[in-house]
């Protein structure tokens, strides 16, 4: 997510402790005889992430989502279902899904009606019979979706969930708004492929992550659009939009399929900057290696939200970003494209690792911008250095955010500064080796802050833990290598 504009809720320590205790009580039971069957027990209601301790769920992994949406009209509820193919990682007496705000109709497990209970965003499902560890099972949830449901954060995210447009809707799922769209294992470390089937009136187009595999006329002058995400993705990276769109197809480096999804009236006004995508891809591939997915494109958001999102293979970019100056447009476009490597292909192990994703996107955004008529990268980092102690106090250290401050300035320029310091420490050639090695090792996987520290140490041939940890976790900003004249402003 990019935040060129100045960004416009509570720490869950007690809840995290409760979740940890619950997980300990509901974990697998050990028996003296290995062949003995595991006693069924409830899956944990959350993964215990310090930012959102009840996000995600224990006891199973999702193998695939199949989402069916019978979209009707702007701001109008519609019938929906989610079919979740999963595998039990423990013997389950019951399990949870993250699901908020929609009207629940029915839940089945392997075709049989299941018991349900709702508490906030937790949907607890009790199957007719326990599910043995290692067994595949299928959950189907039918519900009424409300495409006006939003939530608000007092940081760069602003509003998220279903975001209405003049003739349809787009989705802002970050950080944990996917549960407003469909029942899910809603944590960035939990990845699965998704099949979308979206039925619309014939005068609307539906789009989603990945590849359009089918467009079929159905009864009543309606059209069913089917998309396959192709690769697994985290729920925070889901995109699903309906509107009066034009699909603009082209190709990128090496014949990469490009498809922009543009509101009809904005096709020509946004064309100049959208056509820069091949050049952006070429520039980033020289830095990071081959683009990690099968296709890419831009979804132009016809909303007033000043937030762009790195939704996988189809970045959401607000129309205002594409109707202003080229320098500002390219900063956002390169930022979201860089996320396809950092945060999308290499996913977050936990929300405290957001600095890796946003820091890298801002780092390459600013580097590109300097080379193409924008502000000095060094000057931007010097300004971030001056403010870093204040940001540490107000927003938490780069890798130690609190939930209300997750998407504040520290995760952007403040985290890019950590990478800038690392480059100054090891030199540009070694830094580039670290970046390439990170992508090579973790593409298609999740990775953590400690993984980054360990890999940087291995590639550089020096123990960087003592250097990086104060930058990432300390209460005071360390000296900037190579810049003894840089000073930090006093905290006020």
UniProtKB/TrEMBL annotation:
Gene3D superfamilies recorded: Neutral Protease Domain 2, tricorn interacting facor f3 domain
Enzyme class: hydrolase
Chemical reaction(s) catalysed: Release of an N-terminal amino acid, Xaa-|-Yaa- from a peptide, amide or arylamide. Xaa is preferably Ala, but may be most amino acids including Pro (slow action). When a terminal hydrophobic residue is followed by a prolyl residue, the two may be released as an intact Xaa-Pro dipeptide
Top-level taxonomic group: Bacteria
This protein's record includes keyword Zinc: yes
Cofactor(s) listed in the protein's UniProt record: Zn(2+)
Domain called Peptidase M1 membrane alanine aminopeptidase: residue spans: 280-471
Residue ranges constituting the Aminopeptidase N-like N-terminal domain according to the UniProt record: 64-236
EC code: 3.4.11.2
Keyword Protease (UniProt): yes
Keywords noted in UniProt: Aminopeptidase, Hydrolase, Metal-binding, Metalloprotease, Protease, Signal, Zinc
A Pfam family it matches: Peptidase_M1
Segment forming the signal sequence: 1-32
Similarity section: Belongs to the peptidase M1 family.
Protein name: Aminopeptidase N
